[in-house]
Each structure stands twice: as structure tokens, then as C-alpha cells.
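With this grant's support, we have settled on a layout for protein records. An illustrative entry appears below exactly as we store it:
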Amino acid sequence: MNFQTIQFNVSDDIATLILNRPQVMNALNRQMRAEITEALTRLPAGVRCAVITGSGKAFCSGQDLTDTEAARDLEKTLRDEYEPMLHAVRNCPAPVIAAVNGVAAGAGANLALVADIVIAAESASFIQAFTRIGLVPDAGGTWAIPRAVGAARAMGMMLFADPVPARQAADWGLIWEALPDSEFAEGVAARARQLSQGPTSAFLSIRQAVAESLDNDLEEQLQLEARLQGKAGRSADFREGVAAFLEKRKPAFTGR
């Protein structure tokens, strides 16, 4: 796959997707949205973790405001371009880490928040910048943020459009963790290795269970857990995990 606005590489079962328009803080234009979607929907076989990060000082500043074609019909742009991109992240066949290396604003913040795990550098921040230009939060922000931090904090983020520093975002439960900048790259790499060596099928079932729990009642969720656990109990990784436990060694999961 040849890309112009992202860098994409696979090493040791880990796919790394780097938003690569640093001159505009990795703002999302039509081509970048299409390339992110393509990269994640055509993930090479054997990839067991994907990492999305940004080049330069920013993660992503959101919609490229010079993209006048997209601005002509924002509803169509969201439906035709943003929704496939967000679904590609959410339905990726490997767990996804958003490694937020700098500011994540607008749709850029919400692109990160749709990932399975968000790890940020302490110098990073999250901004629901939409009201600064008279818009409404989109790209899944009004779905993800209230569920993570509650309605009061979500409303404050969206109405005031104030930056939320990474450490505060972690304290609120908006993201998994904030790391000192000097430890960020190593910390993300360690987490990616951990996921890439884990029981991939179980990870994806956990994603499904957590997502559906938001709409299920207890009985529905218990039934879902039973189905997913039945599937996991038939996997090679379960057999390996039990064998490793009994033999007092580290399991060698294959993702199957």
C-alpha cells in the first residue's frame, strides 16, 4: 500500500500508522481519511496490534479547514468519509492503541478516542474545538466522551472548548494513561508488544462485550458473556494459557 498522507509499516506483528501532514498539525483532509480507512481495513494477515500516532508536534488538529470541498456539505463528508474511517478503527481485526504524541483537537481527538486504548504524552491535550468555529462535536465525540467522563464533564469540554491536559484526561478516565514525554515512545512500544503477544481473539471479544454493555441490561450482558466465553474456551490460546499456568511458564499465545 502506497500512501501520501500517512506512513504505514508492520514490524513484529505490530502495524504502525503515522498521520503524516506535520506542516498542518496532521489535519484530516479527504485523502488522509481515505488512507487511514484503507490501511486499517486492509491490515496484513498476522498483525496483532495497531498503533495510530502523529508525526511532528501534534497528533491531529482535526478537520483541515482549507478543505473547502468537504465544507460544502459537512453531513455528506461525515457520512461518506468520517464514518468509514471511524468504523475502520473500531472494527480493526487487531486491538488499536492511539498514541497521542501532542495536541488532539476536534475530529482528531475523537479519532483517538474511538481506539481501544489511548495513551498520551503528558504534553498532549484533548480539545473539543468545534464551538470555536460555530460547529457541533462530531466524529463520535458526543457518543464516546459522555460515556467515558459523564455528562457534566462532556458538556464542559464541548461548550467551553478548553484544552484538557493529558494528565487530567487520564484522571477523568477519558484515556488509559498519560506518560512523561521522555517515557512516551518506550511506554507505547511496551504496551503494543504486550497486546501483540496476547490472546487476540479474546481481546476482540472484550471490545465487543464492553461496547454492547452500554446498551444491554444485565440479562442480555450475561448471555453475551456466555457466548463469548464459550468461543474463547474453544480457542488454542485458552488451551495454551491453561497449559502455561500448570507448567508455571509464560504462555505463548498465537491469537487463535
